[in-house]
Structure formats: C-alpha cells, structure tokens
Design goal:
With about 325 residues, the protein is α/β, with parallel strands linked by helices. The chain is built from twelve helices and twelve strands. The protein has two domains: about 55-240, Ribonuclease E inhibitor RraA/RraA-like (Glucose Oxidase, domain 1); about 245-310, no CATH class. The strands form two sheets. Strands 1, 2, 3, 4, 5, 6, 7, 8, 11 and 12 form a ten-stranded mixed β-sheet that branches. This is RraA family protein. GO terms for molecular function: metal ion binding.
Length: about 325
C-alpha cells in the first residue's frame, strides 16, 4: 500500500513538473487567453483573442474617453485608464484589438531561457526578441507593451520595426517606454503611437518576457484581446465583452447631450433641469426628438437604438 502511495505521489510530481514546464511559454496558449477572456461569447482569433468587429472599432473612435471611462467604472472596472503620453500624431484617434508584451530589466539566466523557449515556439531567433510580438500582429491589432517606463536604452521600436508593425496591423502602438528615430516613425503614413519619450539610444539591458499575458500600463491592467481607445486625452483599455454595450451606451449619451444642448440654446429648459435626473416630460420630449432624428445621422441602426432604449426603460 505504501509502495502504491509513493508511486502515485511520484506520478503526481511528474505531472506537475510537466504542466509547469509547458505553462512557461513566451507566448500564452490560446486556452489561457480564452480563460482570461471567458466572458466574450463571439468569434476568436487562432491565438484565443476575442475578435471584436471592425464596425465596432470604427464606432468606438467617436466615443469620448470620459464616456468610456464612466461606463467602465459603473461596471466595476476602475483601473482601465492611463494618461500622460507623448503621441506621434496628437490629432489622431486609434482603436484596435490588443496584443500585449512585457519587458523587464535584463537578467542573463532568464533571458537565455526566453530565447531557448522562443526557438521552441518557432520564433525568429536571428534578430532581437522585441520583434516577436510584431510577427504575430494582424490587421486591426494594437501592440501594447509594458516597458516599465524606461526611455534611455528602453526604446522598443525605431522606424524599421515601426514599418513592420504597420505592415502587419495597419495600426499603431501604446508603449510604456521609449521610441527612437521619431523622424522616421513620423513618415509612416497611417501609423501612430502613444509613448513616454524619445531617445536616440537602442534597446539594451532589457528583455522580452511574455506575449499575450496580462500586463500593467501605468495605472491600468491590460489583457490580451482588450480593445484600446487612444486619443489626445489618453488611453483606455476596454474588456472585449463590454465593448458592444459601451459603444451604444456612449452613443446614446452623446445623443442626450445633443438634445440637451439644443434645448438649452432654445431656452426650453434651464441648465438645472437638463443637468439632473430628467422629469418624465423631458424624457418624453427626448424620445419624440429621437423619432425625428434622421436615420442617416444615427451612429447606430434604428433597431439597435430602439432595443437599447427598451432595455434601459426609456
């Protein structure tokens, strides 16, 4: 009996060791990404990330950071915003599906393991590992990297990698770290980036540790498959399963604001009446105003609008 018990313990130890080894990948497995984002019920990419539609990404570009922030806080997501960025094209707005990467100060033994594991995962080991996240980008992705705010010797991309990023994603980056060759990055038509600062130094004494795992960007927690909204007012990282409702809720808030501003200009109501909980009369006026609103100007379909109003007891 004792011998049998020892055999079971040995088998369990072997299983745990094997499981632990298989879990220590550079790139997260699709199963892990699916587990992180299990509230998403729609289509996914092969790497497990939620495939939020291009149409929603386009609509999200018109949403204000404050509206998205307010919606997320109502849902209990209080740590999804980060500001204080330098921006390659400050007038630009970027949305996309997040691919995450984490960087750490160089430690030789860990870096050796990362390179060996990267080779096992069939990643390009000729160049630097900072190219690995770029190789997996697809159209509509945004490369989001935790460079722990390092600028000198922490420049995650220059113009060569910037061109590669845009070629794969037709999008840009959010880097809690530095960039180099800003002049070259400015010349990449369509590319944009949110970063901490620029420096002519190249990446050294810094190593990639994970791809598509949870990361920290300033005061925000970011998961692979989140959707990012980035503009001159900051960046906000939205859990994929909340994107559809966040978009239409924010669009309705914008319509409410448009109605309120119009009625204030017309002196139909006072600022106090508009800036508080609406009376049944004002709400009825708003619904009647919406009925006359041209369908071609609505950010959503009329059916989507009616469904949202019904669900929210307008």
């Amino acid at each position: 009996m004792k011998k049998n018990k020892m055999k079971h313990i040995a088998l369990l130890a072997c299983f745990m060791a094997t499981f632990g080894m298989s879990a220590q990948k550079v790139g997260s497995s699709p199963e892990y990404v699916k587990a992180l984002t299990d509230q998403w019920k729609g289509e996914r990419f092969a790497d497990g990330r939620p495939k939020v539609s291009d149409a929603l990404l386009q609509r999200l570009k018109k949403i204000r950071i404050e509206e998205a922030w307010g919606y997320l806080r109502q849902k209990g997501f209080n740590n999804q915003y980060e500001g204080g960025w330098k921006i390659i094209h400050p007038e630009g707005v970027m949305t996309g599906r997040v691919v995450t990467a984490q960087y750490m100060p160089l430690r030789p033994d860990l870096n050796k393991y990362v390179k060996l594991q990267g080779a096992k995962e069939k990643r390009d080991t000729i160049g630097g590992s900072n190219s690995w996240p770029i190789e997996i980008l697809v159209n509509g992705d945004v490369y989001v990297a935790d460079g722990y705010g390092r600028i000198i010797d922490g420049t995650l991309i220059g113009s060569n990698l910037g061109n590669a990023i845009y070629a794969n994603s037709k999008n840009g980056v959010v880097f809690d770290g530095g960039v180099r060759d800003l002049g070259g990055l400015l010349e990449i038509e369509g590319f944009n980036g949110w970063y901490r600062d620029e420096d002519p130094s190249y990446l050294q004494q810094q190593m990639l540790t994970t791809i598509n795992a949870p990361i920290r960007i300033g005061r925000a927690t970011v998961l692979p498959g989140d959707v990012v909204l980035a503009n001159r007012h900051g960046t906000i990282f939205i859990p994929s399963h909340l994107v559809p409702e966040l978009v239409i809720s924010s669009e309705v808030v914008a319509l409410r604001d448009e109605f309120g501003f119009q009625r204030l200009r017309e002196k139909t109501y006072t600022a106090g009446q508009i800036d508080t909980r609406w009376t049944p009369e004002i709400k009825a006026d708003f619904l009647n105003w919406l009925k006359k609103y041209p369908d071609t100007k609505l950010p959503m379909t009329r059916a989507e609008l009616d469904d949202h109003l019904k669900k929210n007891n307008y």
